[in-house]
C-alpha cells in the first residue's frame, strides 16, 4: 500500500504531517468512532453520504479490496463500475498519502518459500519452538539491533517486555478476539497470555546468534524459568552443531542472555534496567534498549528511559496495543501534537489502529464465508438490546465454525454466551433482512480500516516529534514483511547523529 516514508522527513515536514493527520481524522471521526457490531442498532449505513452509499452498495469483497482499499491482486485490472463521488475518492487518496508506508525498502525473495514453517535465514536450532511470524521478527529486529549497536558503540543490549504482558490483564485481547467482538474491559485467560509470550526468543537470538551481550527483563518468574530452560536447550544444540559441522557453525563462544524478573513501570525509572552486567575489561556502560511489540505504555516507558538516562545511547522499539496507552500520559508525548486542535485519540480510534489491514485485504480477496461474522454479530446485537436494553456490546466468546451456521443458530448461541435465554422468540424475517446486508457491513468496516493506519501514523509521529523536541535523533523504519507482521515499524533513536548510517539499518537480507 502506498504512503509516506517516515525516513528522511525533516522536522518541519513531520510537524506539518501531524497537522494534516489531525484535520483528516477530525473530519472522518464518526466512521472511526463507530463499532461495527452496532451497524444495525445505530443505522451506520445511513450515516454515510448518499453518494457513498450508491458507490459502495453491492460491491463484492474482492472489489472492496481493489477499489476502496487500493490493494488489487497481482495483475488485476482496476475498473470502476460507476463514477465515484469526488469526496470518496479524496478520502481514499488522502488515507493512502498520509499514512506511513509499511512496505520495507528492501526487496528479497520470501524466506519461507522452501518451507512455510521454517525461515531459510535461520539455522535449525533458532527455529525450534518459534512460529514462522516470530522467526521473521526476531531475525529482522535482531539484525537491526546488531547494526545499531555497532554504529553507536553499545556495550549491552537490554530487551524489555517479552514477559511484561503476563502482568497486564486484557492487554492482548485484540490478538485473540475475532473482528466480531473487541469490547473494552474484556478479559482473556492466563493460558492465552502465556501462549502469547515469546519466552525470550529475541534475547536468545541476539546473544547466542549474533554475539551481543544481552539482559532480558521479564515480568513473570515462570516465563524467566522457561526462557532459561530454552537457553540451555539451544546452547546444547549449538554445541552439537559445532562438533558436527565446525565449518558452518557459528564461531566464538556462546553467551546466554541474562534474564531478570523485573516489572518495568511506565511512569517511573527502572534501576534494574540500567544496571550493567559485569563484563571483564569493560570500563563504561553504553546501553541499547529494545522491545519487540512492547505493549501499550511499555513502549512509552522505553522512550522515557532513553531520554532520561545518560547510560542509554540507542533505542530500537516496535510498539503495539495502542488502545492500552494511558491517555493522557502516554499520548500525546510531544508538545507539538498536544497543541493541535482535535489531536485526541480515544480508545476506539487507538484500538482500530491495531487491526491488520493486509490480513483483512487477503480475506476480502478470498471472499470466504468467514466475512459474514461481522454481519451476524451486528444482528445478534439487535436481539440482545431487544431482550435486555441495558446490555450493550457484551463480550461474546468466539463461536466456532460460524460460516456453517444459519443466522438464527448463531444468534441463539450468542445469547447463551452472554447469559440470556437462547430460546427467546426470534424475528426470522428481520434477521434474514440483516443478513442480506452483509456486503454493506463489510464495506463500512473496510472504510474504517482504510482510515485506521492514519491513527497509527499519528501515534508514531508524535513519538518521533517528542524525541526531536528533546534534542535526539529518531527515525521510523518498516523492517518486517507486513503480511507476516502488520505492526512492523521500528522506532530507532540515538543521542548522536548517525546521518546516512540510518539508511544502512534497513538493508536487504544477506
Report on the structure:
By secondary structure, this protein is α/β, with parallel strands linked by helices. The protein is 44% helix and 9% strand. It contains 21 helices and seven strands. It has a seven-stranded mixed sheet with strand order 3-2-1-4-5-7-6, with helices on both faces. Helix 13 links the parallel strand 4 and strand 5 (312-320). Helix 1 runs antiparallel to helix 20 and helix 4 (61-68) runs parallel beside helix 20 (438-469). The radius of gyration is 24 Å and the shape is globular. It starts with 10 loop residues before the first helix and ends in a 5-residue tail after the last helix. The model is unreliable at 162-197 (pLDDT under 50).
What's this, in brief?
This protein has 510 residues and is α/β, with parallel strands linked by helices. It has helices at 11-27, 29-33, 50-56, 61-68, 86-98, 124-127, 132-152, 173-176, 190-196, 201-209, 221-244, 271-274, 297-308, 335-338, 347-352, 357-366, 373-387, 407-417, 428-435, 438-469, 501-505; strands spanning 156-160, 214-218, 258-261, 287-295, 312-320, 473-478, 489-494. The model is unreliable at 162-197 (pLDDT under 50).
Amino acid at each position: 500500500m502506498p504512503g509516506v516514508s517516515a525516513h528522511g522527513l525533516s522536522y518541519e515536514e513531520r510537524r506539518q504531517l501531524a497537522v494534516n493527520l489531525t484535520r483528516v481524522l477530525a473530519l472522518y471521526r464518526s466512521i472511526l468512532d463507530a463499532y461495527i457490531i452496532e451497524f444495525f442498532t445505530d443505522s451506520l449505513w445511513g450515516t454515510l453520504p448518499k453518494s457513498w452509499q450508491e458507490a459502495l452498495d453491492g460491491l463484492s469483497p474482492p472489489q472492496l479490496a481493489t477499489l476502496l482499499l487500493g490493494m488489487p491482486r497481482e495483475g488485476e485490472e482496476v475498473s470502476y463500475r460507476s463514477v465515484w463521488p469526488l469526496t470518496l475518492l479524496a478520502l481514499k487518496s488522502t488515507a493512502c498519502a498520509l499514512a506511513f508506508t509499511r512496505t520495507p525498502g528492501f526487496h528479497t525473495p520470501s524466506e519461507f518459500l522452501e518451507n512455510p514453517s521454517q525461515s531459510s535465514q535461520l539455522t535449525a536450532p533458532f527455529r525450534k519452538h518459534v512460529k514462522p511470524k516470530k522467526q521473521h521478527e526476531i531475525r529482522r529486529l535482531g539484525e537491526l539491533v546488531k547494526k545499531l549497536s555497532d554504529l553507536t558503540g553499545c556495550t549491552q543490549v537490554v530487551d524489555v517486555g517479552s514477559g511484561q504482558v503476563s502482568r497486564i490483564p486484557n492487554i492482548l485481547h485484540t490478538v485473540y478476539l475475532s473482528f466480531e467482538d473487541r469490547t473494552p474491559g474484556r478479559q482473556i485467560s492466563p493460558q492465552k497470555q502465556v501462549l502469547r509470550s515469546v519466552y525470550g526468543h529475541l534475547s536468545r537470538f541476539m546473544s547466542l546468534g549474533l554475539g551481543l551481550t544481552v539482559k532480558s527483563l521479564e515480568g513473570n518468574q515462570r516465563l524467566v524459568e522457561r526462557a532459561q530452560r530454552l537457553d540451555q536447550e539451544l546452547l546444547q544444540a549449538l554445541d552439537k552443531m559445532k562438533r558436527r559441522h565446525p565449518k558452518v557453525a557459528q564461531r566464538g563462544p556462546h553467551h546466554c542472555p541474562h534474564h531478570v524478573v523485573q516489572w518495568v513501570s511506565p511512569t517511573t525509572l527502572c534501576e534494574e534496567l540500567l544496571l550493567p552486567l559485569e563484563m571483564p575489561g569493560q570500563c563504561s556502560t553504553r546501553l541499547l534498549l529494545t522491545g519487540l511489540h512492547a505493549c501499550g505504555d511499555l513502549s512509552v516507558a522505553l522512550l522515557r528511559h532513553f531520554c532520561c538516562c545518560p547510560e542509554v545511547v540507542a533505542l530500537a522499539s516496535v510498539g503495539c496495543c495502542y488502545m492500552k496507552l494511558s491517555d493522557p500520559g502516554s499520548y500525546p508525548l510531544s508538545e507539538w501534537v498536544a497543541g493541535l486542535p482535535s489531536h485526541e485519540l480515544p480508545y476506539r480510534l487507538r484500538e482500530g489502529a491495531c487491526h491488520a489491514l493486509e490480513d483483512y485485504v487477503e480475506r476480502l480477496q478470498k471472499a470466504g464465508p468467514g466475512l459474514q461474522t461481522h454481519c451476524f454479530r451486528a444482528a445478534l446485537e439487535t436481539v440482545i438490546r431487544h431482550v435486555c436494553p441495558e446490555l450493550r456490546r457484551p463480550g461474546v466468546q468466539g463461536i466456532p465454525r460460524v460460516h456453517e451456521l444459519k443466522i438464527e443458530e448463531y444468534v441463539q448461541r450468542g445469547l447463551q454466551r452472554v447469559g440470556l435465554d437462547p430460546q427467546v422468540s426470534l424475528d426470522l424475517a428481520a434477521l434474514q433482512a440483516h443478513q442480506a446486508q452483509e456486503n454493506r457491513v463489510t464495506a463500512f468496516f473496510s472504510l474504517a480500516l482504510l482510515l485506521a493506519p492514519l491513527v497509527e501514523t499519528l501515534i508514531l509521529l508524535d513519538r518521533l516529534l517528542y524525541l526531536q523536541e528533546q534534542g535526539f535523533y529518531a527515525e521510523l523504519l518498516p523492517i518486517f514483511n507486513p503480511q507476516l507482521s502488520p505492526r512492523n515499524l521500528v522506532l530507532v533513536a540515538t543521542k548522536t547523529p548517525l546521518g546516512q548510517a540510518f539508511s544502512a539499518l534497513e538493508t536487504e537480507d544477506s
